[in-house]
Design goal:
345 residues; alpha/beta; Rossmann fold; SH3 type barrels; Elongation Factor Tu (Ef-tu), domain 3; 3 domains; five-stranded parallel β-sheet; 17 strands
Amino acid sequence: MKSKVLLGLSGGVDSAVAAALLRQEGAEVIGLFLHNGSTCADADLAAARAVSRDIGIEFCVADISAALRERVELPFAEEYLRGRTPNPCVMCNPAVKFAALCAEADRIGADTVATGHYAQLKEHPCGLWLLWDDGSPRDQSYMLARLGAEVLARCRFPLGGLSKEDVREIARKQGISVAERPDSMEICFIPDNDYAAFVERALGVPPEGDFVDKEGNVLGHHRGIHRYTVGQRKGLGIALGYPAYVSRIDAAQNRVVLAPAGGEYRQEIVLRDCLWHAPLPAAFDAQVKVRHTKRPAAARVTPETGDCARVTFADPVRAPAPGQAAAVLQDGFVVGCGYIGDAEA
């Protein structure tokens, strides 16, 4: 009997090839397009329909616009007004995307769900865990690090271990219509990539305030804390006679703290809302990835009361921004993930 797989079909080449590979394995594949309600998604919807015809799979659409707005878009905007820098994809995957996939899979009786993420799963004594692929520049385990054990147990990631060129070549050979379609580099609900304008539309225009140094001396005026992130240098609109970086954002005082080069580094951070995949020792050594584009850094991780943990890096890391996810890696596995807490003064 064929296994039934529900695949998140986005209209891009990655999910298209994932569908083709699953079909080659003999699975019954149903493509599900998750529509976010924007007009920009209509082109992706048309591409996804074309892919379903190319490969010869059943196709359906689900409207996730309400869930996306409630669980990702508004929290994303609110985090910026708290002086934090959220990652919407890390937020969306467990709260919206995989929740919708699993709910639809339950409805139609699909055995597993799949996506076009570049990720791999491997059995661990504590369950099915995500691998961190150090050798792959496409590895997306960081984006999936907030998925819980029950969801991971249902997942398939057919592109794990492949390169982007591998994927495009498969698409060309199989005559898939989106083989050369460019990747989308924007957040799905901010197609123009203007985060500040999105926050202003969602919650109103935040007030302007002061740039200050570490001692609180006023250096100039900023245009609203939602326009800045820890580690930022360009676009500050202030000249101090030396390169200045955002060291901290003080939302309570509506201040952006600037520092000379080096002031954006941190030796220690606190993680909140941690998700762990196994019982933990009092402290353990790990690699911690503080941003999708950052290399993991060696650290000592100490779980604390509640769902928090303290991370002490072997060497200071640049610009761990409050609100960003931090993936905790050990022995090639993703062992947990938390959100970087607000920096101390």
